[in-house]
């Protein structure tokens, strides 16, 4: 039976406009102090010693990742999935998990004590996470075969409305971003890592055979980087379950 190929679409609604070789090791040793300071307890996820399982797709995410080029190890904050509706039937396209530098919490003291529901609708908090000069990485794991051009077209449809007037720098960044996916089949199980090193620099790593060993491209445009971040963590996220899980993870660690 042939592999199923899925078209992808991304939400284009937004209320925001805003004007890295990458090999990874799946786990790293943490001392007890670090493990206590940052916990992963998203209520919708299945836990194990090393992994958190996204329940809707059964995709397992490492709780910790080490990325060369980042200033420190990254911890999983929440997971979710992206669903496309075909003739009123929901089809899951990918699972996603957000990893952050553990010290991000020290930059968010103003939100301590907030509930997950309050955090989820607070755009200023998610904007602060983006602006914090700390590494953040979104891991996407495809659960269906997707044509690379189709994936990019859907992503571009979501990014473009979030940018008022692209500058030459933005257009160059978008061209670089587009070239990664053109003529590239994205098979089920493919990993895509979008890693924000700072607000104006983002690394893209893609691997169809486990964790990637190199960077496919570096995107240097704050407008493009923020637009992509807003696709997932803005007021109209393409994966509400991911944003909700991240909010739960933040609320747990704010206690």
From TrEMBL:
Q: State the source organism's domain of life.
A: Eukaryota
Any one GO CC term of the record: chloroplast stroma
What Pfam families does the annotation carry?
Chalcone
Q: Name one GO molecular function term.
A: intramolecular lyase activity
Where in the numbering of this chain does the Chalcone isomerase domain appear? 58-250
* GO BP: fatty acid metabolic process
Q: Which PANTHER family match?
A: FATTY-ACID-BINDING PROTEIN 3, CHLOROPLASTIC
Concerning its family, UniProt says: Belongs to the chalcone isomerase family.
Stated name of the protein: Chalcone-flavonone isomerase family protein
